[in-house]
TrEMBL record:
Protein name from the UniProt record: UDENN domain-containing protein
Pfam families linked: DENN, uDENN
Top-level taxonomy: Eukaryota, Amoebozoa, Discosea, Flabellinia, Vannellidae
Domain of life, per lineage: Eukaryota
UniProt feature coiled coil, ranges: none
Domain UDENN positions: 13-245
InterPro entries: cDENN_dom (IPR001194), DENN_C (IPR043153), DENN_domain_containing_2 (IPR051942), Tripartite_DENN (IPR037516), uDENN_dom (IPR005113)
């Protein structure tokens, strides 16, 4: 678990649109920018984390917002911020923003805009992402103002304002202790805290990805000012369960 204190040069590395087909499983249907290499180690792994239930398992929730963390071969962390949609008879779809930056609320707000513009068209989504990517490196506490083509075809551009958290806000920004204490009573939370301090292997199980992501990050944040020193995987695909057993 790492708190992000220095913004990377770009707000995000790339965005993947992952679709899930019951007989084939998850696969990348679109990528932004187009020039990214889908054989990149993170891009290859991302679809399984967008739909971790495994092939053949039904995706139940209408909408899920969650995050995952992957580590490159050189030890660098990449954060995946996901918004998953299930609408009618269409295939489940997930928008995944891959970034070196850790700020759940910032990227959740970006995904809110993606969801809003997606109702108009996919091109409305990607004109926004292109405008966002063109922004200069933001500083903690700074507000980013994005002006982009109107999603509805109006003559006036759409404008959005995003706030980058301050250094001292990142811990509270990323987690929600309420989710953890709502699911576990105080005795179980204390037991969990003891296990983490003793560096015991700890596995969380949940039917909802949003809840799982919130609780795992909250548990890791409880260790502050210490930090978890070993493998940290907020969401683990079914196909990789043997990795932690």
């Amino acid at each position: 678990f790492t708190l992000f204190l220095h913004m990377a040069a770009n707000l995000f590395d790339y965005v993947l649109v992952v679709k899930y087909e019951r007989n084939k499983g998850p696969a990348i249907s679109y990528k932004f920018p187009q020039v990214i290499d889908v054989n990149d180690e993170i891009a290859k792994a991302a679809p399984s984390f967008c739909f971790p239930e495994g092939q053949g398992n039904a995706v139940q929730s209408k909408k899920e917002t969650f995050s995952f963390t992957l580590t490159t071969g050189t030890g660098e962390k990449r954060f995946g911020y996901c918004r998953r949609f299930v609408s009618g008879s269409s295939e489940p779809e997930c928008y995944c923003i891959v970034s070196q930056n850790s700020s759940f609320s910032l990227f959740s707000n970006i995904l809110d805009i993606v969801e809003e513009r997606r109702k108009s068209s996919n091109s409305a989504v990607f004109t926004f992402l292109k405008s966002l990517q063109a922004q200069s490196k933001p500083n903690p506490g700074e507000r980013i103002v994005i002006s982009t083509f109107s999603a509805t075809g109006a003559s006036e551009p759409d404008k959005y304002e995003l706030k980058v958290p301050m250094h001292n806000e990142f811990l509270l920004d990323y987690i929600s202790y309420a989710a953890l204490f709502k699911r576990l009573d105080i005795d179980k939370v204390i037991t969990l805290f003891e296990c983490l301090l003793l560096e015991s292997r700890t596995i969380f199980v949940s039917k909802k990805l949003s809840r799982l992501s919130e609780c795992v990050n909250a548990a890791a944040a409880m260790l502050s000012p210490f930090s978890w020193q070993y493998v940290f995987i907020p969401v683990l695909p079914t196909s990789l369960l043997g990795y932690c057993c």
